[in-house]
Amino acid sequence: MNFLKIKSGTSVEGDELKAFRSEKKAPTYTYLMAGTHGDEVEGVYLLQQLYKWLKNDVEEAPCSFVVLPILNVDGYRASTRVNAHGVDLNRNYPTECWTSEVREAKYFPGAAPLSEPENVFLDKLFQKFPPHLIVSFHSWKPFINFNGDCEEAANFISKFNSYEVMGDIEGHPTPGSLGEYGPQKYNSPVLTFECPVISDEITLKDIWNENETAFKELLLSEYVSPPSK
Ligand SMILES: [Zn+2]
User: Fold this and answer.
1) For the CA atoms of the chain, what is the radius of gyration?
2) pLDDT (tens digit, 9 = 90+) per residue, 60-119?
């Protein structure tokens, strides 16, 4: 599949925020994004591999894609969860229950919703290239979190990698998260994919190996198709 570079944005520290879309225009897109949390290299790596595969080996897919390899480029460079303003980008979206309350420093939601240039950039992309599904790659403990109407897609992934599927995570409220924002504002379900964190026991390559088939199958399946009118 051919991809085109979309006009890029700029991070807090002036770095380029890159995004690409399928050459074939569409009314709505499946978003593949990683690096919302800069210290989660695992998700960034998985998406790199998938993007390479889409570009080099896939001729046709059931949808057009927007790919954001790393949203929080400053945090990625500094190996921090938060961006260069110390904001958790996944608590900074203007959702109905956004709150300025800081539960822990690592979840600092920012001074106001959408205060961060990285999220402003993403939101502009959503307006210009509307999403019908957003897949966001993270790492923590392995599970697949679904928000909005994508439980079946989550179950489909789980069939391959046996990760647990969860709706709301008990005891872990996420006000201002993309998982709340996508369905509320854009009527787009969100799959928040959490893979394991690298350690002495598991390498990036291992994590890719245990997820490669799941995602290759997903991206060619009906689960990424635009909703029928
Ligand atoms: Zn994360």
Assistant:
1) 16
2) 999 999 999 999 999 999 999 999 999 999 999 999 989 998 888 999 999 999 999 999
Distance from Cα 34 to the centre of ligand 1, integer Å: 9
Expressed in angstroms and rounded, the spacing between residue 184 Cα and the centre of ligand 1 is 20
CA of residue 173 to ligand 1 center, whole Å: 14
Cα 60 to middle of ligand 1, angstroms: 30
Res. 229 pLDDT band, cuts 50 70 90: low
Task: Give, as residue ranges, everything with CB less than 5 Å from ion ligand 1.
Answer: 37, 40, 138
Nearest to 111 by CA among 12, 19, 36: 12
- pTM of the shown model: 0.97
Of 208, 197, 163, residue with least CA distance to 52: 208
DSSP three-state, residue 31: strand
The fourth-level CATH superfamily of domain 3-224 is: Zn peptidases (3.40.630.10)
Contact 147, 192 (CB under 8 A): yes
Q: Where are the domains of the chain?
A: 3-224
pLDDT of 164-175, one tens digit each? 999 987 777 889
CA of 2 to the centre of ligand 1 (A): 29
Between the CA of 37 and the centroid of ligand 1 the distance, in Å, is 5
24 alpha carbon – ligand 1 mean position (Å): 30
